[in-house]
C-alpha cells in the first residue's frame, strides 16, 4: 500500500512540475514576442521598443555597450528624473512663495511657514542641484 502511495505522489509531483514548466515557457515566450505586453499599442510604445532594439543590437550604428547604459525607472516602468524628491513635490514647494505673495495670511500658517523658513532643508537640497540653462 505504501509503495502505491509513494508512486502516486511521485507521479503527482512529475505532473505538477510538467505543468509548471509549460506555464513558465508560455510566459517567457510571450515576453519575447511583446516586451511591453501590458502597454497599449501606440507611438510611445513603438518608439521605446525601437530605441531599445537599436541601442542593444551590436549591428546597429546606435549600439550602446552595456557598461555605458543608464536607465532610471519608477514603479510602473516609466522614466523619472533623479532628484531626492518627486517632480510634483518640487513644483509644489517652488509655488509656495507665489501662493503666499497672493495670500499673505498664509505666511504664518503651516505648512507654508515651514517651507518659507530659511532653515527648511528643501532650500539646501535645491542649491546643491546642478543648474541647467535652457538649450
Give a brief description.
With 135 residues, this protein is mainly α. The protein is 56% helix and 0% strand.
Range of helix content: 55-70%
Spell the H/E element sequence. HHHHH
Flag low-confidence runs. none
Rg computed from alpha carbons, rounded to a whole number of angstroms: 27 Å
What is the arithmetic mean of pLDDT? Answer: 77
What distance separates the N and C termini?
81 Å
Beta-strand level of the residues, as a percent range? under 5%
Give the number of DSSP strands.
Answer: 0
> What's the total helix number?
5
Characterize the main sheet. Answer: none
* SSE-based structural type: mainly alpha
CA-based shape: elongated
Layout of helices and strands:
Blueprint: H1 2-33, H2 43-56, H3 87-102, H4 112-116, H5 121-128
Question: Can you walk me through this structure?
Answer:
The structure is a single chain. This protein has 135 residues and is mostly helical. Among the domains are: 43-80, no CATH class; 87-128, no CATH class. 56% of the residues lie in helices and 0% in strands. The chain has five helices and no strands. The longest helix is centred in the first third of the chain and has 32 residues, at 2-33. The radius of gyration is 27 Å and the shape is elongated. The relative contact order is 0.04.
Amino acid at each position: 500500500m505504501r509503495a502505491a502511495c509513494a508512486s502516486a505522489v511521485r507521479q503527482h509531483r512529475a505532473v505538477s512540475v510538467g505543468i509548471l514548466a509549460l506555464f513558465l515557457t508560455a510566459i517567457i515566450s510571450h515576453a519575447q514576442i511583446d516586451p511591453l505586453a501590458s502597454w497599449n499599442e501606440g507611438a510611445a510604445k513603438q518608439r521605446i521598443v525601437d530605441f531599445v532594439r537599436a541601442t542593444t543590437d551590436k549591428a546597429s550604428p546606435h549600439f550602446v555597450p552595456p557598461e555605458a547604459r543608464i536607465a532610471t525607472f519608477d514603479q510602473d516602468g516609466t522614466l523619472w528624473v533623479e532628484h531626492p524628491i518627486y517632480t510634483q513635490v518640487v513644483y509644489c514647494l517652488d509655488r509656495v512663495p507665489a501662493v503666499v505673495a497672493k495670500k499673505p495670511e498664509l505666511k504664518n500658517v503651516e505648512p507654508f511657514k515651514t517651507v518659507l523658513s530659511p532653515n527648511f532643508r528643501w532650500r539646501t537640497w535645491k542649491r546643491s542641484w546642478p543648474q541647467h540653462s535652457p538649450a
